[in-house]
Design a protein that fits this description.
Strand content: 15-25%
Shape: elongated
Distance between the termini: 38 Å
Strand order of the largest sheet: 1-2-3
Helix content: 25-40%
Number of domains: 2
Number of helices: 3
Largest sheet: 3 strands, antiparallel
Order of helices and strands: HHHEEE
Structural class: alpha+beta
Radius of gyration: 23 Å
Number of strands: 3
């Protein structure tokens, strides 16, 4: 959103708090900025419809190959599979048997 559509220039609670931290301070500033942004009609109208979920921690593996991650990706019109071991960070990349194009 632009400042033309929002003359006060709010960019969400966190960004406003970070900008204010560089030039002003008073006790309770973060709560005051949060209240301001949450009560702002323009901020509410333009806020993200699907906010990001918070990151969720996962258990740390205790041995190799206990937890794996896998993903398919395209590179130069070829499809590849990558498998990564969460314990050692070891990665295996293999070309898929078929092309998507």
């Amino acid at each position: 959103r632009s400042t033309a559509a929002h003359p006060e220039g709010h960019q969400g609670v966190t960004k406003c708090q970070l900008r204010a931290k560089d030039c002003v301070f008073w006790p309770g500033i973060n709560k005051d900025i949060e209240k301001l942004c949450l009560s702002c009609h323009v901020c509410q109208k333009h806020q993200r419809a699907n906010p990001h979920d918070p990151l969720k921690p996962h258990d740390i593996p205790t041995r190799p190959w206990e937890v794996l991650g896998a993903n398919l990706f395209l590179w130069e019109r070829e499809e590849y599979l990558i498998v990564a071991d969460y314990y050692s960070k070891y990665q295996i990349v293999r070309k898929a048997c078929h092309s998507v194009y």
